[in-house]
Amino acid sequence: MGTLSKAAGCFGAYVCGKKTLRDYLINKSRSFIYTTALPASLAQAARASVQIIKEGEKLRRLLMSHAEYVRKGLRKMGFDIMNSQTPIIPILIKDPLKTVAMSRQLLAKGIFIQPIRHPTVPQDMARLRLTVTAAHQRADLDKLLDVLKGL
């Protein structure tokens, strides 16, 4: 069982198994029974994403290198990144108003980082949710860190 959303950048999910399992899920799973199949365009996008994942070792190494570079820079500036080890990096701010204000300041400087607040996270655990990608260039990452340093 797996999702096609985060890592594959698509929509939907899948379950692999023996025919008895498939038959059971098809006939007993409410979430399957009361939904429709993915549109063909999304199914093809998922197929292409799986192919990229299979062949993407170089991209994964680049992505993890970018993420480590940003995490190291954030830690050096004293930001709490909540022990993040992934390319989705939380920057814990705690105060929801300050979190939204920082997000707006960043956007004004050309950097979009989503503010995440209660009820999505516990009260007083507001954070900025930063996503690093393999498509970012080192100059993009440096700009991000420079702008955050100035806040």
Textual characterization of the structure:
It is a single chain. The chain contains six helices and five strands; from the N terminus they run E-E-H-H-H-H-E-H-E-E-H. Helix 4 (57-76) runs parallel beside helix 6 (138-149). The protein folds into two domains: 2-55, no CATH class; 57-149, Aspartate Aminotransferase, domain 1. The chain is an alpha+beta fold and 151 residues long. The longest helix is centred in the middle third of the chain and has 20 residues, at 57-76. It is globular, with a radius of gyration of 19 Å. It has a three-stranded antiparallel sheet, covered by helices on one side. A two-stranded antiparallel ribbon has the order 1-2.
Radius of gyration: 19 Å
What CATH architecture label of the largest domain applies? Alpha-Beta Complex
- Mean pLDDT over the residues: 93
| Global shape | globular
Q: What is the first-to-last residue Cα distance?
A: 42 Å
- Biggest sheet architecture: 3 strands, antiparallel
CATH topology name of the largest domain: Aspartate Aminotransferase, domain 1
The helix/strand order is EEHHHHEHEEH
Number of domains: 2
Write the layout of secondary structure elements.
Blueprint: E1 2-3, E2 13-14, H1 19-28, H2 30-33, H3 40-55, H4 57-76, E3 88-94, H5 96-108, E4 114-116, E5 126-131, H6 138-149
Antiparallel strand pairs: 1-2, 3-5, 4-5
Helix pairs in contact: 4-6
